[in-house]
Automatic annotation (TrEMBL):
Keywords: Signal. It comes from the Eukaryota. It comes from Ichthyophthirius multifiliis. Residues 1-20 form the signal peptide. This is Phosphofructokinase family protein, putative.
Amino acid sequence: MLIMLTFALQLVKILYMVQQLYLLDFKQGMPIIEQTKKRKIFCYIPLENMLIGNVRNRITSSNGDWQKLLASTSQPLFRY
């Protein structure tokens, strides 16, 4: 009985994590984390930009220049 209860609890945890990933990917966009020397820069790239082109190529082509990254995406949301 205890084994079945722990298995059910693990299943609920997995389903909750999948639901959170679904909400993250399809509501807010793709999370991108850039670690700098002083702080961690965290932004969401909306899904409309992911469909237009490859976001990873845009980030690597910007070489850490956030002005170029802003110019290549229509509306990223930054959090510091």
